[in-house]
Amino acid sequence: MTRTRATAIVTVLAAIALLAAAAPAADYYAGKTITVLVSSSPGGGTDTTARLVSRYLPKFIPGNPDTIVRNMPGGGGTVANNYFTRRAKADGLTMSQDSSSALSTYVRGGKRVKYNPREYNYIGSIMRGGSILMVRKDARARLTDPKAKPVVVGDSDGIRTWVAMTVWGAKYLDWNNRWIFGYAGTGEMVLALRQGEIEMWGTANAKLIRDLQKDGVVDPLVLLTDKRRKDFPDVPTFEEVLGDKKPSGVAWRAYNVWTKPSDVDKFLSVPKGTPANVVKILRDAWGKMVQDAKFQAEATKFFGEAWRTRDGAATAKLVLEATDATKEVKDFLFNIRKEHGLPTGKKK
Fold this sequence. Notes:
alpha/beta, 2 domains, D-Maltodextrin-Binding Protein, domain 2
């Protein structure tokens, strides 16, 4: 066999291999079912996002697969992410619908954290405009009265991004509060807020905030973004409220590391090792979904007017930024959480 003929055969085989790799684009998902893992219990923002996306995304995936939503709450995203990392096959048939809490948990660390979100393949993300911290109307005056009974902050795990506002508020604004955590999910925390079991809570879910306002339960207090939400223009940012009491140096860098994952908010991913052509199918479908008028209308209904999206590449970049913290910052976060009786994870 001549060298020219051998080269030609190799070229043909390489072309066939490339075609074979690309072939699933048209029919890979036909007749299949995608399982969407949700890192929280039913009823919250992450679950709502998962169920909205699972209804619309398959319409834009060639083959129109079915979807199943599987809730797997626990440990600030640890349970779902550990399962996703250890058990989910990298075949595009298991997706993770997650939230900023999982990124915060990863940065905090600990022996239970067996996942690395920096390695996932991101399909896209939805940001709802930033969490709003609310306080019950009958407890608001006590927040700035050091002689009064502390205002109770409630959370599932004590590490969500909005919790940082309550911690920095206590340290730098002399807020009179304390924390309890261990609630199963958003539904349980909303009920606890309505019943007065907890008195401060945060969410980016516009519908939940509006419902609590309408019923006269809460006053929106501060916002966890660098600019005000257009759907809640009267709610100041936390930085505005801090004013000249805003700390500098490592204290502010630590605050930003704790809260930065909120810029990612709700994100969809597939495991490390998922074939590039399968990732492309899903990213292309995401791009078409977020332009769909019906999807946009439903998203606005659930998330309010401030929601926006990022594609997979932009989401991946932001995740890398949000999970990058120096030892000095991690030590500060460990110490301030310990000071206020919040979960610390493993000191790094």
